[in-house]
């Protein structure tokens, strides 16, 4: 399936215009194209703003990574910590 086919399918199945469907597809593709390191840093910062502590954060991030369409190899808490803090 090409991106054009996907845009047409989204437009047809949702009732969105072709341009709206194209924006949705572009946003979804960009979300899943985000490198693991950027995802981990972004989610860590976001979850910290809600008062979560690192053990909870790293457990949640690990679970979220496992559910991604193309999941990266499982990362340990130590590996996640190194991504965030260097």
Explain how this protein is built:
The chain is an all-alpha fold and 86 residues long. The chain has two domains: 3-32, no CATH class; 35-85, no CATH class. The chain has helices spanning 3-14, 18-33, 36-49, 54-66, 77-85. Helix 1 (3-14) crosses helix 2 (18-33). The longest helix is centred in the first third of the chain and has 16 residues, at 18-33. The relative contact order is 0.11.
Notable characteristics:
74% helix, elongated, 5 helices, 86 residues
Task: Please render the helix and strand layout as text.
Layout: H1 3-14, H2 18-33, H3 36-49, H4 54-66, H5 77-85
Helix pairs in contact: 1-2, 3-4
Short account of what is shown:
The protein has 86 residues and is mostly helical. Helices cover 74% and strands 0% of the residues. The mean pLDDT is 92.
Overall number of domains: 2
Label the overall shape.
elongated
Radius of gyration equals 16 Å
Distance between the termini: 39 Å
Instruction: State the helicity in percent bands.
Output: over 70%
């Amino acid at each position: 399936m090409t991106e054009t086919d996907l845009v047409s399918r989204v437009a047809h199945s949702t009732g969105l215009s072709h341009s709206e469907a194209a924006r949705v597809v572009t946003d979804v593709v960009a979300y899943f194209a985000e490198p693991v390191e950027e995802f981990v840093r972004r989610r860590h910062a976001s979850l910290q703003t809600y008062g979560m502590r690192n053990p909870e954060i790293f457990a949640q991030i690990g679970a979220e990574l496992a559910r991604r369409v193309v999941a990266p190899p499982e990362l340990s808490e130590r590996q996640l910590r190194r991504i965030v803090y260097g």
